[in-house]
Amino acid sequence: MPTVYVTVPTDAAEEIAATLVEERLAACVNAVDCHSTYRWDGRVETDTETILLVKTTDAGYDRLKARIEELHPYEVPCIERFDAADTLECFGSWIDDTVD
Amino acid sequence: MPTVYVTVPTDAAEEIAATLVEERLAACVNAVDCHSTYRWDGRVETDTETILLVKTTDAGYDRLKARIEELHPYEVPCIERFDAADTLECFGSWIDDTVD
Amino acid sequence: MPTVYVTVPTDAAEEIAATLVEERLAACVNAVDCHSTYRWDGRVETDTETILLVKTTDAGYDRLKARIEELHPYEVPCIERFDAADTLECFGSWIDDTVD
């Protein structure tokens, strides 16, 4: 099943996570604060951000991705999908039942 | 090699991680605190949890998974396996030597 | 595209991340503090570390891995590659343009 890795501004993290779960695009979101280093317009920048690890279904992934793009304040957001090679059966069933 | 992604209550994280390493089911565990948002019994809930990123071998994965289920206080625990596409050779050898 | 999972001593995290981005081996690095439990010389040890999640290209991966090995203070560093099953197109293009 997919886990979607998204980085967001820390002050937007809670609202984006709540929206994805309220709209049944995700069953759960784990939010982790991080320190980011990146190159932008030729300069090395650093910033505090939050990583969202978003749990959804194969069938729900495309709608989730489109909705994150809409909600996201960045011009070029990090949205990447990582597929689990195995998921505990009852946890997978819960995600299937929870995501529309 | 597998990295197993598990979310646990923060106050149980240290003991579960130590048990998995002491019993040679894992070579190492990286524990990261997170803020979780999820749907349960029809309501959107939030909670503080800890993500365990557990390093083991292909051969050890099934026993590790069964032991995490035993140790875990949740009815429906998040236990998911992600396979590395590449692992630094000496690190892979260390995991192989450390896990029973 | 690859995300490389590296654990480093917390006091070396910022410099390693900055070096990888300055040398155009990575487009961005997300650094997350963690608590690690591992077996070393037959004993279970715990320590505070930082996980670096390093975003690069397929073509850049081998050079990035070699450079992390050079910069890393550990004898046996955790360097593992996880491949995204999907990456938002504009984010992937940004990584392609940013990594040499």
In short, what is this structure?
Three copies of one chain form a homotrimer. Chain A starts with a strand and ends with a helix. Chain A is elongated.
What does this structure look like?
Three copies of one chain form a homotrimer. Chain A has 100 residues and is α+β, with helices and mostly antiparallel strands. Chain A has one domain: Alpha-Beta Plaits (2-Layer Sandwich). Chain A has helices at residues 10-22, 61-71, 89-98, and strands at residues 2-9, 28-40, 43-55, 79-83, 86-87. Chain A has a four-stranded antiparallel β-sheet, covered by helices on one side. The longest helix of chain A has 13 residues, at 10-22. Chain A is elongated and about 45 Å long. The mean pLDDT of chain A is 97. Chains A and B meet through helix 1, strand 2, strand 5 and helix 3 of A and strand 1, strand 2, strand 3, helix 2 and strand 4 of B.
